[in-house]
Backbone:
């Protein structure tokens, strides 16, 4: 790291040393330096001292871990979030046809498939096959936290914890 300080210690709050270190990009390093400068000026000093750098890295690390916690499970996909809201409003679940109805048949099947896969990968939705007289229906439900999710991608079942 260019600041000359070791990365913050691995803690129980951060699952891995990589996640604990805020200085993984030049942008993060620039933010840490700006924070250190603010701490320096607040102390009435003219030079950035190691304690100012440590304090800025600690604050940056806290902010990064807080953002990770707050956004845990978020897909970043507005369509996936819209579908997830519909799944939460329908605890019994929705079939793909019902999802299409919720979206007013306004989205291509490929976009819906991608959004459902994103929800499954984020652990926020599960699906199962329902037997019918014809082709089986796929029922999607909002997932409970910590539930094992199975998603079908390219005709392969993959399980996620």
Residues:
């Amino acid at each position: 790291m260019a600041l000359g300080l070791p990365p913050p210690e691995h803690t129980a709050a951060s699952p891995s040393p990589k996640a604990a270190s805020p200085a993984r990009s030049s942008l993060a390093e620039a933010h840490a330096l700006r924070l250190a400068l603010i701490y320096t000026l607040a102390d009435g000093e003219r030079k950035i001292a190691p304690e100012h750098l440590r304090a800025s890295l600690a604050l940056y690390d806290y902010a990064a871990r807080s953002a990770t916690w707050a956004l845990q499970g978020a897909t970043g996909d507005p369509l996936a979030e819209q579908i997830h809201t519909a799944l939460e409003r329908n605890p019994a679940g929705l079939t793909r046809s019902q999802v299409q109805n919720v979206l007013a048949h306004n989205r291509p099947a490929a976009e819906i498939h991608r959004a459902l896969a994103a929800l499954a990968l984020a652990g926020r939705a599960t699906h199962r096959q329902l037997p019918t007289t014809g082709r089986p229906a796929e029922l999607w439900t909002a997932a409970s936290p910590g539930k094992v999710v199975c998603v079908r991608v390219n005709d392969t079942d993959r399980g996620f914890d």
